[in-house]
Specification:
Number of helices: 8
Number of strands: 8
Structural class: alpha/beta
Largest sheet: 5 strands, parallel
CATH topology of the largest domain: Rossmann fold
Strand order of the largest sheet: 5-4-6-7-8
Helix content: 25-40%
Distance between the termini: 58 Å
């Protein structure tokens, strides 16, 4: 009997609120286990967190696109990050999204996050605030990102590329047309990055690019680099 079958047998009669899956397991691996869990009607909407140290896993994420909510790399995250993510996932319907959370402070780095997915809004803002980036404004689509850029001056923009109403590519192009934003760093965030995505993001006017699910260390390192450069 394989690992996946044992797992399914153990959980089939239980009420599960959340699953944490490591991709690097004996055959069949975590990819197959996630697909097996989601194929069961009872667990079709079960939130899944991938917590793994597997090498070169990103190239295979397309196999489970849309089947998990968050990915944490054991090599760049700690148990506190996992605990925060678990807390968000379990309470996601009760936690108010940090939409347009504006903190007016002088001489403080101001960051605009354009992201339509509520869970990602919460995870990214918590990660930023944990690293002392307190002044964060969150909007849910590209159109609102353009409007907010007209209203306020930001030191850094984090732009999800796949958003409703106006996508991140178009929003980035429009923001770059503003005199005050020709040099402001814009980091593009793209889920399930494919070959050519980086070039497309840069062509639209983005300064840099981070694939989603984001690597926490890479993300914060780039935020620190670009906010120092633009401060």
């Amino acid at each position: 009997e394989n690992v996946s079958a044992k797992v399914m047998d153990r959980i089939k009669d239980k009420d599960i609120d959340l699953a944490i899956v490591d991709l690097d397991m004996p055959a069949p691996n975590g990819f197959e286990l996630i697909k097996l869990i989601k194929s069961d009607k009872k667990f079709a909407h079960l939130p899944i967190i991938i917590y793994t140290g597997k090498e070169n896993y990103r190239e295979d994420l397309y196999k489970i696109e849309g089947l998990f909510e968050e990915l944490l790399d054991k090599r760049s995250t700690n148990i506190e990050d996992l605990a925060d993510t678990i807390n968000v996932m379990i309470n996601r319907y009760e936690t108010p999204p940090p939409v347009e959370e504006v903190m007016h402070k002088d001489n403080v780095i101001k960051i605009l996050l354009a992201e339509d997915y509520k869970h990602s809004q919460i995870i990214v803002t918590r990660l930023l605030k944990k690293n002392n980036f307190e002044n964060v404004v969150v909007v849910e689509n590209g159109e609102d990102a353009v409007k907010m850029a007209h209203q306020e001056k930001f030191n850094l923009i984090l732009m999800d590329m796949q958003m409703p109403i106006m996508n991140g590519f178009e929003a980035t192009e429009k923001i770059r047309e503003m005199p005050d934003y020709r040099e402001v760093p814009i980091i593009a965030l793209t889920a399930f990055a494919m070959k050519g995505d980086r070039e497309k993001c840069l062509e639209s006017g983005a300064t840099d690019y981070i694939p989603k699910p984001i690597d926490s260390k890479e993300f914060i390192d780039k935020v620190k680099y670009y906010t120092n450069a633009s401060a």
